[in-house]
Specification:
Layout lengths: L2 H11 L15 E6 L16 E2 L13 H10 L14 E6 L1 E3 L5 E3 L2 H13 L5 E4 L8 H12 L3 E5 L17 E7 L18 E4 L3 E4 L5 E4 L2 H18 L5 H11 L19 H10 L13 H9 L19 H11 L13 H9 L14 H14 L24 H9 L19 H15 L7
Parallel strand pairs: 1-3, 1-6, 2-3, 6-7, 7-8, 8-9
Antiparallel strand pairs: 4-5, 10-11
């Protein structure tokens, strides 16, 4: 399980809401960190002033052609007869490499790229940063800049490379970057030239894509650079059509809606799969977060709300695993987060802070963290949390109506009576309460949201 999986899930799902289509919004601004952009090929209405970092005395006019090709995929080129994926987007050319007065190619290093990334967000107000290139060396400045950009709500999209091997390029390899590989022309497998490694998140078209030259002519181009531009265009399109979406939400949606093939789930060659724009739009409209949590399921709203509140996260970037049993440690962590607390980042055991907190507040004895939690244990912990923090315990229900009432542990009777009375835990059938039955992740999500709404009044402590 890769760290970048959880990086995406936590950051994205905590804030996901179902967006509404707005009548008007500001155009999405995309930083094209590349060779510049030709105004002959790309409409001036799609361009905003940028900066030439590699040749500070020069303009942002393209001297190589690569940046113009990238721009034409994103917004199109009337001169070259290319429509573009998001014609409404505004591009900001930030020149990272070009040609000097002798005609030689010069390119910036990781430090320069880090500076440009920060400026793209802070100075030029870009939400999407297209970097169709990379460097072989991991530098602290570049790594920190990418992480910082994501914290500011921007999304760095970078290519995996065209070596046809497992070579790693930065910033694509960072967990906070959306790293793009190329799918072949038949849309059936990774392109032969597309690098395969742990950095790959998605595949997008990358063979024989129509692009514009600096003079505005049409040229078919191949490479992960252009796959990256394709993804940048799609992100801009989704954010244009649904302006309430954040870049982090779009990233989650693209992962979950991608067409999986080959090894089920994540693999080094294709990441989470091939970009599927049509399915992504369906996910946005329906408010879907995960491949295995469908709108027709009884737990759909509960899971989504629990994830939105940051109480639960997926078992991967694309799956929630609703039928997987819940452990005691998971409930400790949910209640810990519900109280507005955050685990210490350098804690070796992910639940240790929540475990200590639960013991200190009398919510649990802290034993058997990996044990499957039963329905009555869940009721007891919720009951103790309610009591510990001064919330109304309300009424008690009559458990004698359940045929298995005698199987309820003595320590859990009052808590289950309370939980049943307010609708937190109901019968599994018309006559049974199943107190010793295990609670699934879906059941826990729905129960904790009922608890949040009914007991806490929809107010999360911070």
């Amino acid at each position: 399980m890769r760290l970048r999986i959880f990086f995406a899930v936590v950051l994205t799902a905590m804030f996901l809401t179902v967006p509404a289509l707005a009548a008007e919004s500001e155009p999405v601004r995309v930083a094209v960190i590349d060779t510049g952009i030709s105004e002959t090929a790309i409409p001036k209405t799609n361009l905003s002033p940028g900066q030439n970092y590699i040749l500070p005395n020069k303009t942002t006019a393209d001297t190589v052609g690569h940046g113009t090709a990238i721009a034409s995929i994103i917004v199109g080129s009337e001169a070259a007869g290319i429509k573009g994926i998001c014609p409404e987007a505004i591009l900001v050319p930030l020149v990272y490499y070009g040609k000097n007065q002798d005609g030689g190619t010069i390119k910036g290093d990781g430090a320069m790229m880090a500076k440009i990334i920060r400026d793209a967000v802070e100075v030029y107000d870009c939400k999407i940063l297209n970097i169709s290139s990379g460097v072989l060396t991991d530098t602290p400045a570049l790594r920190d800049a990418v992480a910082w950009a994501e914290k500011q709500g921007a999304l760095v999209i970078s290519s995996v490379g065209n070596d046809g091997n497992d070579a790693v390029y930065y910033p694509g390899a960072y967990s906070s970057t959306l790293c793009v590989g190329a799918v072949n022309e038949a849309n059936s497998a990774p392109a032969d030239f597309s690098n395969s490694n742990e950095a790959v998140d998605l595949l997008a078209p990358g063979e024989k894509l129509p692009t514009a030259t600096m003079k505005g002519n049409r040229l078919l181009a191949t490479g992960t650079s252009f796959s990256t531009a394709y993804i940048s265009g799609v992100v801009a399109k989704l954010m244009t059509e649904y302006p309430d979406l954040t870049t982090a939400q779009v990233r989650q949606i693209l992962y979950a809606s991608a067409t999986d093939f080959g090894t089920t789930g994540y693999d080094r060659a294709s990441g989470w799969g091939i970009l599927n724009l049509e399915q992504a739009l369906v996910y946005v409209r329906q408010g879907c977060l995960f491949r295995d949590v469908e709108p027709s399921k009884w737990y759909f709203d509960g899971v989504n709300k629990a994830v939105k509140l940051g109480l639960l996260q997926g078992t991967s970037a694309v799956e929630f695993s609703p039928n997987q049993p819940t452990t005691r440690a998971m409930l400790w962590m949910m209640l810990y987060r519900l109280q507005g607390l955050k685990p210490t980042k350098n804690t070796a055991i992910w639940y240790s802070d929540a475990q200590s907190w639960a013991k200190a507040n009398g919510i649990s004895d802290g034993t058997n963290p990996n044990g499957t939690i039963t329905r009555e244990q869940m009721a007891v912990m919720l009951y103790r949390y309610t009591s510990a923090f001064g919330h109304d315990l309300g009424n008690r229900g009559d458990l004698s109506k359940f045929s298995d009432a005698d199987s309820i542990s003595s320590y859990a009777k009052d808590a289950l009576s309370w939980a049943n009375a307010i609708g937190l835990i109901n019968g599994t059938g018309t006559q049974t309460l199943s107190p010793q039955g295990s609670a699934t992740r879906a059941q826990l999500a729905v129960t904790i949201i009922k608890f949040y709404d009914f007991v806490l009044g929809g107010i999360r402590h911070t």
